[in-house]
Design a protein that fits this description.
117 residues, 51% helix, 12% strand
């Protein structure tokens, strides 16, 4: 449960990872020009800059998609922490306390889990 989060936060995490990865790829690619590797360095820099640009553009699309999902998400109050959280789909997690939430009564689990010995 430590690494689980709400769907909106997951999309934002992937967008951030692609942004940072794309910028890192661009920085690595610039080594061909900075260290003066000649024509092959320029080719390497061009390839890495294009790959980094593609990664940043994909992350921009993911951020846009997450924003559009966030505007149409249902805002509910978490029963555990009492904070308002956005929910996408039938089940999601609280953005703050990571509690599993659902609006579908068939998927709701009202029983507390029993500890196995």
């Amino acid at each position: 449960m430590l690494f689980k989060s709400s769907k909106v936060n997951e999309f934002r995490l992937w967008g951030l990872a692609l942004t940072m990865g794309g910028l890192l790829i661009m920085i690595i690619g610039m080594a061909g020009i900075v260290f003066d590797w000649g024509v092959i360095g320029q080719v390497i820099a061009a390839i890495f800059l294009v790959l980094g640009l593609i990664s940043v553009m994909v992350s921009m699309g993911i951020y846009f998609w997450a924003g559009m999902l966030s505007t149409s998400a249902v805002v509910i109050e978490c029963p555990e922490c009492a904070k308002p959280t956005k929910m996408i789909g039938k089940t999601d997690r609280c953005m703050f306390c990571k509690t599993i939430l659902t609006l579908d009564p068939e998927l709701a689990n009202t029983n507390k889990p029993v500890a196995k010995e």
